[in-house]
Amino acid sequence: xxxxxxxxxxxxxxxxxxxxxxxxxxxxxxxxxxxxxxxxxxxxxxxxxxxxxxxxxxxxxxxxxxxxxxxxxxxxxxxxxxxxxxxxxxxxxxxxxxxxxxxxxxxxxxxxxxxxxxxxxxxxxxxxxxxxxxxxxxxxxxxxxxxxxxxxxxxxxxxxxxxxxxxxxxxxxxxxxxxxxxxxxxxxxxxxxxxxxxxxxxxxxxxxxxxxxxxxxxxxxxxxxxxxxxxxxxxxxxx
Length: 239
Ligand SMILES: [Zn+2]
Known about the structure:
single chain, mainly alpha, Helix Hairpins, binds zinc ion
């Protein structure tokens, strides 16, 4: 057990360094990811509004075509009106004329509605374009900064990852999985030294008998308050 505990201590040291590197990169990786998502979303919105504008233009052209055809017919009806000889003919023609005029009016209203819809989409498209430029600029500078920080820390990170690979095969899978669970739950610190009779993780005062047990390093002992693995202070500060 002593050996396992010593390896666990080594592993904790390596992980502490890896966490330090992670912290040096800060929130940049998440920020870059977030910006990339914003970029895709905004591009999608822009594409959608531009597609709608195209559809609206097509509809407007169709309706305008109908209106001009209708107007030609309307003029024809008006001319025919002079030539009618009976009331019946007159009534029928007036009816046709009114129906046609009604259809033209309705089409004109449709165009007004479509123009309004088009304006709304043009505004969305223009806002999206502005936003897109802002996001692209932000993304460019943050990606650059992240790349710089990664390259600065990459070699050190690789070294520690290699050390980690060397240590882990010598620790039992069940111990590693316990370690990982505590590490995830406790901000990256799963193995802590006993400091002046207290847990070095949560500072909970430990019973003296437990401190003696920890010093022996012959079994896995958890802090009763936070659950971290306790090791002797000397062991932890070696190397
Ligand atoms: Zn504790």
